[in-house]
Design goal:
Blueprint (H helix, E strand, L loop, with lengths): L1 E3 L6 E9 L7 E6 L10 E3 L11 E10 L11 E4 L1
Antiparallel strand pairs: 1-4, 2-3, 2-5, 5-6
């Protein structure tokens, strides 16, 4: 899972949220630092892990968090066949 970097100068990290169902409910999954690029240069991202329970979809939403701890709006939902 990768996404374009947030261009704001005070970006601290990204919060990643996960759901097994399109539309949620979403749970916090992990923090990704701006320097992490699991798949593509110039993009932030992470490598996902196996889950015991799935209904055939893996859905994510991402938010940017600034140095003061303020979290921005969630991204649009991105779902993939699991």
């Amino acid at each position: 899972m990768t996404w374009d970097h947030n261009p704001e100068s005070d970006l601290d990290h990204y919060n990643v949220y996960f759901s097994d169902l399109p539309g949620g409910p979403y749970a916090f999954l992990r923090i990704v630092s701006p320097g992490d690029s699991a798949h593509s240069p110039g993009r932030a991202g992470f490598i996902d892990f196996e889950r015991d329970l799935t209904v055939g979809k893996t859905c994510y939403r991402i938010s940017a968090v600034d140095a003061g701890g303020s979290e921005g709006a969630w991204s649009t939902e991105a779902c993939f066949d699991a």
